[in-house]
Amino acid sequence: MRKSNEDACRSGVFSEHAGWAVVCDGMGGVNGGNVASSVAVEKISAFLLSGYHEGMDGPAVRELMASAVARANGAVHRIAG
Fold first, then answer.
1. For 35, how many CA atoms within 13 A lie in the half-sphere containing its CB?
2. In which band, very low, low, confident or very high, does the pLDDT at 27 lie, cut at 50, 70 and 90?
3. Does the predicted TM-score (pTM) go above 0.90?
4. DSSP code string of 30-53
5. What is the crossing angle of helices 58-80 and 33-51, to 10°?
6. What are residue 38's phi and psi, to 5 degrees?
């Protein structure tokens, strides 16, 4: 069992009928694993909240989610150097 949990998660509500959740594995044992998961959760959360608008259909929400993950991935890679 690890001494610390490097995973990160967050959830929220877009509207009365739509919510979201993100969970990122911190890659326990890898230097900066906790930083990577925290940055990814923060970037994904911010992108989802800024990009969602009432009335988005399923494909648009899926595209928003895919874009959020891609941006978070880029941010983590930039931090990792």
1. 9
2. confident
3. no
4. STTHHHHHHHHHHHHHHHHHHH--
5. 150
6. -65, -45
